[in-house]
Recover the amino acids of this structure.
């Protein structure tokens, strides 16, 4: 009788273990399907190189600006933190020559180059694809701050800080295996800069047209650029 009771106890324990094993395996499957191991959501390095083309004001100067930039930092899913370096040509846009042959030649434009270093925070407000797919699209906004050093070709240097704001779209392609993925893509964006204008000798209230109250010059310079590049 005692042997029979022991046999029945062992059988019941084996049944309980057998019933619990599938439940445990199912929990692991659900855990893996939760997206925790999605390669698109893991922290990784992301680089970005390309061009900025637009216009920028620097005190009384206002004209074409453009050049190259490079960015690098870390990305995790929607959020990315970057360091940035820009090298741009800035200054007056060259004036066109007059059709009058007796008119004096236009003055040489004041031009120089700007080096800028800063940081940016980028966040994807919308994303498409990813997961098991080999391509992902992001629509993002970014903001940051930096420091400018402008060297004029005819002499002189200007140092100042700025802030920037951008809006863009990006397509990224995953190549390689999920265990060792690599990424490449491209993006296009619109990016703006705002900086404090340098002091001027004529910084006093004035009227540029008919008015009943003179106002001082705008104390800030702005720049607006089309931004396109390759994501690595």
């Amino acid at each position: 009788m005692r042997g029979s009771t022991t046999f029945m106890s062992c059988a019941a324990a084996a049944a309980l273990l057998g019933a619990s094993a599938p439940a445990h395996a199912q929990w692991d499957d659900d855990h893996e399907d939760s997206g925790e191991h999605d390669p698109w959501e893991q922290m990784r390095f992301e680089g970005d190189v390309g061009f900025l083309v637009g216009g920028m004001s620097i005190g009384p100067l206002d004209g074409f600006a453009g050049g190259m930039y490079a960015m690098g930092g870390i990305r995790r899913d929607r959020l990315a933190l970057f360091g940035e370096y820009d090298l741009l040509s800035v200054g007056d846009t060259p004036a066109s020559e007059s059709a009058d042959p007796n008119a004096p030649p236009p003055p040489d434009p004041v031009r120089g180059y700007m080096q800028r270093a800063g940081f940016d925070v980028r966040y994807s407000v919308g994303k498409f694809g990813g997961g098991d797919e080999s391509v992902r699209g992001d629509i993002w906004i970014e903001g940051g701050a930096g420091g400018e050093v402008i060297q004029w070709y005819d002499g002189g240097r200007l140092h100042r800080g700025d802030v920037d704001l951008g809006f863009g779209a990006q397509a990224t392609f995953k190549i390689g295996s999920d265990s060792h993925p690599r990424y490449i893509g491209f993006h296009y964006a619109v990016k703006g800069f705002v900086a404090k204008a340098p002091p001027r000798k004529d910084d006093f209230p004035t009227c540029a047209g008919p008015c009943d109250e003179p106002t001082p010059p705008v104390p800030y310079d702005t720049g607006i650029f089309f931004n396109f590049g390759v994501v690595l």
